[in-house]
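User: For my dataset I need records formatted as: sequence, then structure tokens, nothing else. Please produce one.
Assistant:
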Amino acid sequence: MHKAIFAALAAIMLGAMSGCVPSDGRLSRYYVVAGVEEGDLLKLRAGPGIGFRVIAGLPNGTVLQVNRCEQTGSTRWCKVALKQPSVLNGYVSWAYLQEYRHRIN
């Protein structure tokens, strides 16, 4: 019984520390593009990796809805959609996302 409780708590802690968004699709969170060098854009790609086609370039401050994340090699890629309009979607590197702390309506 104690082993089961310890295993469950360890799983919860590892999930919280990973910073990854749940992949079940029920819960989405908003993040903002941050840390892109001045004069550059974060590439929104068709798939989770640099070998995929670039759909658009996103400047710092762009608000994204993060649906799920996955590890590909040494990079965590997140499936995202633009907050406005939400029809544009693709993958971005997790390294350039910060939690959006404003109230979303």
